Amino acid sequence: MKTNELKSLIIRSLDSDGDPAQASRKLEEAGVNYRFSEGFQDRILERLAASGNTVVREIELVRNLNNAFYRIALTGVAAIVILLISIFMVQGSLTVDSFLGLGTGSDESLLYLLTGN
Prior knowledge:
mainly alpha
C-alpha cells in the first residue's frame, strides 16, 4: 500500500460517517499486521503501573510541601503581628521611627551612633 493511500484511509477512518471495520479490512488486505510480540501487553502494563506510582508520589510531595508552607507562613504572620503589637505597646505608635527603634532621639544622635563622630 502506498503512503498516499494509507493517509487517505486513515483520514477516512477518522470521519464520523466512515466505517472503521472497512478501513481495518483494507489494511489487512494490504498486508498490515496487528500482532505484537510475546509479552508486549505485560511490558506495557508494567510501564503504566510504574508511571502511575510516580504521578501519585509527585502529587503527595506537592501536597506535603503546601502543608509545610502554610504552617511556616502562618507562624511567620503570627510572629509579625505579635511584633507589631509589642512595638505599638512600647512606643505608643506604629511609625517608621518606632519600627527602627529610634524612639525620641534626634538626627544628630543617630549620626553620632552610626559614624562614631
